[in-house]
Amino acid sequence: MHVQLICLATALALVAGFAGPGASQVADLRSATEFRVCADPANAPMSSQDGTGFENRLADYFGELLGLPVTYSWFPSGMGFITRTLRAGTCDVVMGYAQGDELVQNTNHYYTSVYGIVTRRDGPLALVDHLTDPALKDADIGVVAGTPPASHLARAGLAKNMRGADLFVDRRVEDPLGDMIEGVRSGELEAAVLWGPLVGPRIKDDPDLQFTPLLKEEGGPKLFYRITMGVRLEEQEWKRQLNSLIRRNQDGINQILHEAGVPLVDDYGKEILP
């Protein structure tokens, strides 16, 4: 999860003990007049305070389906995010939340995405589509520390090749993923292995770089993950309403994601093309 999406849920789980005794008393806080979204203001290309992220566009879409204006409660994701937003009652839904976290109640997933490898289109690694490819033997490879592909790289004997970036940073002032993308462009790195929703939109129309989903890896951890919305644990009816909207409007959701450049796969890890 941006920091990579899939790791956001793990980070937020650290604050489970700080929810406080009032957590069970917020079931009636959902607004009937606004679609109130909890979001990170500096998590482009997913969410951004200027409204340009693809999760912003998805929020607008759901607001239209609900017939409600969209408003935001902004807070940097990481320690304290759920406590200060959703559980505090300042908003009612977290977009782009990895399935399985215990701090929130997950809706049904509305997309599944995958880690992949960023390479130069005209470079020697352009055809690489799995991390055990011998072509990676002497390549400098960017990866975010602590993310699932780092384990695959280490198992493939490429630990010495990894050029790690920190998992948790203040993205208002640092952009480690952007730095790695530019490293591949400049040749400082031969490749970077990154979370698709974070990198796909950034290089969607790039003439020099490409993103290849890693769909052939064997063993764990898995490299594709279901993404949901998070709501408060007590709000079953709200979850059911969102699930119904997801089920009935999946084609519209996929269209927004494809237009943004988010790589999509099905529940079995098979690529979904536009």
From TrEMBL:
<dbReference type="InterPro" id="IPR022448">
    <property type="entry name" value="Quinoprotein_dehydrogenase"/>
</dbReference>
<protein>
    <submittedName>
        <fullName>Quinoprotein dehydrogenase-associated putative ABC transporter substrate-binding protein</fullName>
    </submittedName>
</protein>
<feature type="domain" description="Solute-binding protein family 3/N-terminal">
    <location>
        <begin position="34"/>
        <end position="260"/>
    </location>
</feature>
<dbReference type="InterPro" id="IPR001638">
    <property type="entry name" value="Solute-binding_3/MltF_N"/>
</dbReference>
<keyword id="KW-0732">Signal</keyword>
<feature type="signal peptide">
    <location>
        <begin position="1"/>
        <end position="19"/>
    </location>
</feature>
